[in-house]
From TrEMBL:
<protein>
    <submittedName>
        <fullName>Ubiquitin-like protease family profile domain-containing protein</fullName>
    </submittedName>
</protein>
<dbReference type="GO" id="GO:0006508">
    <property type="term" value="P:proteolysis"/>
</dbReference>
<dbReference type="InterPro" id="IPR038765">
    <property type="entry name" value="Papain-like_cys_pep_sf"/>
</dbReference>
<dbReference type="InterPro" id="IPR003653">
    <property type="entry name" value="Peptidase_C48_C"/>
</dbReference>
<dbReference type="GO" id="GO:0016929">
    <property type="term" value="F:deSUMOylase activity"/>
</dbReference>
<comment type="similarity">
    <text>Belongs to the peptidase C48 family.</text>
</comment>
<dbReference type="GO" id="GO:0005634">
    <property type="term" value="C:nucleus"/>
</dbReference>
<keyword id="KW-0788">Thiol protease</keyword>
<keyword id="KW-0378">Hydrolase</keyword>
<dbReference type="Pfam" id="PF02902">
    <property type="entry name" value="Peptidase_C48"/>
</dbReference>
<dbReference type="GO" id="GO:0016926">
    <property type="term" value="P:protein desumoylation"/>
</dbReference>
<keyword id="KW-0645">Protease</keyword>
<feature type="domain" description="Ubiquitin-like protease family profile">
    <location>
        <begin position="12"/>
        <end position="87"/>
    </location>
</feature>
Amino acid sequence: MAKTNPSLIPMLTRSYISAEMRDKKKQKINTGGWVKDRKRNIPTQENGSDCGMFASKFAEYASRRAKIDFDQIHMLYFRKRMAWEILQQRLI
């Protein structure tokens, strides 16, 4: 069984975001103050097509500091809601 490295994901995330900032904005970003926040017992994706929706919802809930109370069963609703928001150019 493969061993896990808990510091790998934050390191790769910081590296990726720093590279994107340099490429897109021609600026440096200071990630030194970032805090790792690893959640346990969170919902998991149960198919091969909802990864983007899960990422979007995790980011949205984190930005509101909301309790993560969604699951795979809610993804169709979230997809429809996101499509509506994009078409209407308005968040609900």
